[in-house]
């Protein structure tokens, strides 16, 4: 999950694994390499086996309450994610461009398509559960 950091000419991001709703770093990191320029980018944490176990345990605990969340609230949560993607489209597209080698336009399209997916699934609750 990216978190913006004060930067100079492009997105300078810090990434964390999110486990049980909290950011978690790692002792082991990989560095993003821009495939177009071979420039080194930001570090990303590599999850350990313990991180994976903790994430699965957290997901199991979360499901106990998530399954009781109303359809309307789920729709709202997913729509908020779509809105957040769009509000941060430029910085997300720049990061996506640097890690995939895509053009800024194509990376921007990918961010928009991601937002559209969240909107689509936010409306599926009513289609299949009413």
**Biggest sheet: strand arrangement:** 1-2
Total number of β-strand segments?
6
How many whole angstroms does the radius of gyration measure? 17 Å
Mean pLDDT comes to: 89
Could you please describe the fold and organization of this structure?
The protein has 2 domains: 1-68, no CATH class; 70-130. With 130 residues, it is of the alpha+beta class. Strands 1-2 form a two-stranded antiparallel sheet. The chain has a two-stranded antiparallel ribbon with strand order 3-4. The protein is flat and about 50 Å long. Helix content is 56%, strand content 18%. It has helices spanning 49-66, 71-87, 89-100, 104-129; strands at residues 2-4, 13-15, 17-19, 22-24, 29-33, 40-45. The protein has 4 helices and 6 strands.
Sum up the structure in keywords.
alpha+beta; 130 residues; flat; 4 helices; single chain; 18% strand
Topology of helices and strands:
Elements: E1 2-4, E2 13-15, E3 17-19, E4 22-24, E5 29-33, E6 40-45, H1 49-66, H2 71-87, H3 89-100, H4 104-129
Antiparallel strand pairs: 1-2, 3-4, 5-6
């Amino acid at each position: 999950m990216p978190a913006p950091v004060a930067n100079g000419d492009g997105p300078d991001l810090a990434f964390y694994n999110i486990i049980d709703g909290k950011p978690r770093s790692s002792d082991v990191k990989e560095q993003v390499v821009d495939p177009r320029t071979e420039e080194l980018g930001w570090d990303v944490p590599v999850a350990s086996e313990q991180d994976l176990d903790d994430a699965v345990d957290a997901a199991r605990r979360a499901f106990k309450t998530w399954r009781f969340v109303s359809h309307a609230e789920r729709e709202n949560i997913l729509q908020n994610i779509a809105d957040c993607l769009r509000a941060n489209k430029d910085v997300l597209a720049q990061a996506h461009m640097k890690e995939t080698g895509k053009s800024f336009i194509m990376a921007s399209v990918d961010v928009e398509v991601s937002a559209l997916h969240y909107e689509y699934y936010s409306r599926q609750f009513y289609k299949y559960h009413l």
